[in-house]
Please model this.
Amino acid sequence: MSTAGVVLTALASAVAVATSSVLQHRSARSVAGGSARVLLRLVTRPAWLAGLAAGAVGLALHAVALAHGQLALVQPLLVSGVLFALPVSVVLEGRRPSAVEWGWAVVLVAGITDFLVAARPSPGRISVDADLLAWAVAAAGAGVAVVAAVAFRWGRRQSAVLLGAAAGLGFGVAAALLKQTLTVGRAGVLAVIGDWPLYALLAAGAVSIALTQLAYRAGPLGSSMPALTIADPVASVALGVFAFHERLGAGPVAIAGEALGVVLMFAAIAQLARRNARSALPAPS
Model:
């Protein structure tokens, strides 16, 4: 698949996830009762099931993009899910985002574009040394554990930020493991079942989902969502460079452009998250 194909697939994944988020959030808001009763009611609602299907499509497209593209290219593009949630909410919920929200959406696009243009991610190895990837995943996992442990000792607002960051780091690790699992899968199902990345992927995904829920419970969306959304591509890019030997622009101008892109993305996501918390627009799943 060409680079353009990878970009379009990653963007399609972001659209599918944004659609899933809006549909499921809309359905969940319309159901009352305890947790078990809510779930039983939701599984009978076509909109919620459609959101579940859209989420599955988004995951499948994400896997395709990772199978053919670099982590440093695919993961930053998935940040655009925050952007796509705006027009999706207009179509599905009749909500009209403000001019300020559209303005920050433009800033988000500028940040993603600036980072990718400055970084110019280039392909690394098709498969990596298992020991190298294992050490990288172990180090990242230790980082997630440390950040989460510190979060539980701090105040509520700081806890939400740190738990969001820990969840984002976990999702970044999961993306790297998904890419390696897909690579191993070229040798067949038995190769996947008999290798460790699949099981590490399941564990990383489960821990990240749990940390996400804890982050949302610990504080407002505006506290946890920016840290979660930015930590994911940062961890993915780092693992892509270290474990998969992907290459980024390394000159002073390139590094300055990459840093500016990250700052713009973080600022836009933070502002959109604060406004989303005051409105009906959900965070991407």
Q: What stands out?
A: The chain has twelve helices and no strands. Residues 124-245 form one domain. The radius of gyration is 18 Å. Residues 106 and 152 are 35 Å apart (CA to CA).
